[in-house]
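for the recovery benchmark. tokens below, seq after
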């Protein structure tokens, strides 16, 4: 450190699964404590050299990262109560070795990596723990179900704390041989308890815990019970299996803070895959580090939801009545891509339908029916930018499987069953006059009995730009030759979107062999909650 300010010591215990979350957490600390010196201690059992180099990018003159590999033999005697939780591992126990592994320190602040810091840490770090081993914040939800009284036999005047934020009196813990006591109690009680190391900590430290203000560990239970404290939250803790980076229901209304600090971190600047989930009305919100919700159709209405708006910046949202979700494509093309030059893939999903980037189920329908909750339970941890990138990086375009029309009909026949013929004929003529080399592909698609539907795709950025240039060129020419003002049926009013849905296949068939694009077909899902909307457009046997 180049200055004489005191150094604040902060401890994290992670595995490779939580490297990205640690980047966001440390970013949040740095943003809210810009004039402080920090030593960040990282206990781990499996971080690679690549992980360490990656995290070291957070270092600067006021911030140092110190890695300590913990021997697995210290942890092998402990147990995880809920082995199904991917976000919990034996690494969580390594925090209790801090007094012995950091003999040079008298005090340290421990933070779970599913937290973010949204304020000054000085008042917390400077709290005098006296002779207590730890300072912590009560775990309110376990008081409500009487777990701490009935299962752990705590009295009403004893505090049971959440172990995700701990101010640790390392000097006193060393003097009192804390880890030996902790290990003994773990051996006796681990098979009888529910909340792993947290239960053991509370049983070990009972009577030696200093109660701290809940603003230093604001969990969903605290937000529900003490909403007035929310505005003062210094540390927000995303407890439970649903996190801001998963697809699960928002665990509290401060989840947007995590995304705020993610967007301020170097992760966002290097993000390789971005998928936009399109909304036009209030619905279950899909949002994490990879998926950003975007609202269409709000031009001139001023009742926007808290998400990206396709009526901002360079836009055609005033045409949403006809263009539908294509207005979101246009906004991303003209606005978002300009500010994210390192992005490699661009994708679109919908609050009614999603694409699975890892699975292809033989003989399944092109969109499988599933409830939103079933989808969340199945895919909660599978939609991070890194995981998706690794699944698709060898391909150019990712699509749901083709749909074979039932009862049997050609693409043109199926289109004409719902939509007016004259617009199709106009667009055909535009292709003939302006894109004659596309004629064979157009004829083949129109006479085919299967195609890619639902405008559900992820593709390399340069391919997406090429598709946008072609699509909006033919659409602008179509609009100049058409009159949609007298249409009253939804399937007539939205004719530009329905035409592009078919002509996407024309563009793809013409260009894919020309450029050698590799297409990856994956499973797609339609949520039961909106299934009847799909039946309006397609006939099933």
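predicted aa per position
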């Amino acid at each position: 450190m180049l200055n004489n300010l005191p150094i604040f010591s902060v401890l994290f215990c992670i595995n490779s699964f939580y490297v990205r979350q640690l980047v966001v957490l440390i970013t949040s600390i740095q943003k809210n404590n810009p004039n402080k010196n920090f030593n960040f201690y990282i206990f781990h059992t499996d971080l690679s050299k690549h992980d360490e180099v990656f995290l070291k990018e957070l270092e600067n003159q006021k911030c140092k990262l110190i890695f300590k590999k913990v021997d697995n033999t210290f942890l092998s005697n402990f147990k995880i109560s809920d082995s199904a939780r991917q976000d919990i591992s034996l690494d969580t126990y390594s925090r209790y070795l801090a007094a012995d592994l950091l003999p040079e320190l008298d005090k340290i602040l421990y933070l779970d990596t599913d937290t973010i810091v949204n304020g000054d840490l000085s008042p917390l770090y400077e709290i005098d723990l006296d002779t207590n081993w730890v300072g912590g914040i009560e775990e309110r939800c376990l008081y409500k179900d009487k777990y701490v009284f009935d299962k752990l036999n705590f009295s009403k005047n004893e505090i049971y704390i959440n172990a995700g934020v701990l101010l640790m009196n390392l000097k006193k813990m060393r003097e009192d041989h804390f880890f030996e006591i902790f290990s003994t109690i773990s051996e006796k009680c681990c098979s009888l308890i529910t909340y792993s190391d947290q239960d053991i900590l509370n049983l070990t430290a009972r009577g030696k815990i200093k109660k701290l203000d809940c603003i230093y560990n604001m969990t969903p239970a605290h937000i529900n019970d003490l909403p007035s404290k929310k505005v003062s939250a210094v540390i927000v803790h995303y407890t439970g299996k649903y996190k801001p980076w998963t697809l699960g229901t928002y665990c509290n209304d401060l989840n947007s803070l995590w995304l705020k600090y993610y967007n301020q971190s170097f992760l966002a600047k290097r993000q390789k895959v971005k998928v936009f989930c399109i909304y036009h009305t209030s619905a279950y919100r899909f949002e994490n580090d990879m998926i950003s919700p975007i609202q269409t159709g709000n031009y001139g209405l001023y009742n926007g939801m808290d998400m990206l708006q396709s009526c901002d910046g360079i836009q055609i949202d005033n045409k949403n009545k006809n263009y539908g979700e294509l207005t979101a494509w246009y906004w991303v093309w003209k606005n978002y891509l300009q500010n994210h030059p390192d992005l490699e893939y661009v994708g679109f999903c919908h609050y009614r339908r999603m694409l699975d980037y890892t699975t292809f189920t033989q003989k399944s329908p092109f969109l499988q029916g599933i409830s939103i909750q079933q989808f969340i339970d199945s895919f909660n941890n599978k939609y991070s930018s890194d995981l998706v990138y690794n699944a698709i990086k060898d391909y150019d375009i990712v699509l749901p499987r083709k749909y074979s029309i039932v009862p049997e009909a050609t693409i043109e026949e199926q289109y004409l069953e719902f939509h007016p013929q004259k617009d199709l004929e106009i667009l055909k003529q535009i292709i003939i006059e302006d894109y004659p080399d596309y004629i064979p592909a157009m004829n083949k698609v129109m006479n085919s009995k299967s195609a890619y539907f639902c405008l559900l795709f992820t593709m390399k950025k340069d391919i997406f730009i090429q598709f946008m240039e072609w699509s909006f060129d033919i659409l602008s020419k179509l609009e100049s030759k058409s009159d949609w003002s007298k249409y009253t049926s939804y399937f007539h009013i939205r004719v530009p979107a329905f035409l592009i849905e078919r002509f996407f296949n024309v563009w793809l068939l013409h260009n894919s062999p020309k450029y050698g694009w590799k297409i990856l077909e994956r499973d797609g899902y339609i949520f039961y909650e909106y299934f009847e909307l799909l039946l309006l457009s397609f006939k099933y046997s």
